[in-house]
Amino acid sequence: GTGKVVIGSDNPSTPIAPGTIDAYSINLNDSASQLVFNHNSTLNFAEPVLGAGEIVQMAGNTTITGSITPLQVPDPNKFVAHPQCTPPFLETPADPNDPASTPTPPTVIYPTTQNAFAGSLKVFGGRMTLPINNTLPTLKATSIADGTLFMGNTTQTLGNVTETGGVLDLSGGDNSDVVHATSWNGTGGVVRLDTILGANPPVTIMGPT
Hints:
The chain has 209 residues and is mainly beta. Helix content is 0%, strand content 42%. The protein is built from no helices and 14 strands. Strands 5-8-10-12-11-9 form a 6-stranded parallel beta barrel.
């Protein structure tokens, strides 16, 4: 169903410190569910996001990590997960007829990338950074109304792009900058470049306008 995970403040006008969150994954099942960043600090977000919901950047300096280090596997003697949990835990239970037997340690299916997120990215303020190539490779849509989406020195897939304000920043670094867009609709805002057109490395924006 719908729901919202807020990093920082749920009040758009009063961002606060982000705090911390440890999770095997954040599953935005419904297209209306949201992961909201509304904080007043610098945050490296390294939890895998799944589903078809929305990542919403409101305030603060947020980096979505594309390569994720898995959490420690739970101790099977202390934690047994329901088989319908996401991600699932697969374990062989102890033999109830043998008091000396112990459960087989669970196999945890844990995402180490953001590849399972197929929703949208919305930037309303602050700065959102996509630090490596194809950080969110299956994005359906990206919208920028204010603030900055920074992806300089990388190749990104942004889906249907709408820019009504703010900055899409492709500056910085020595490598080519490539934006793959399913469609491109711009009624305002800035696309920031730091290259001379025709120079090497080039900036490439791909997709219909």
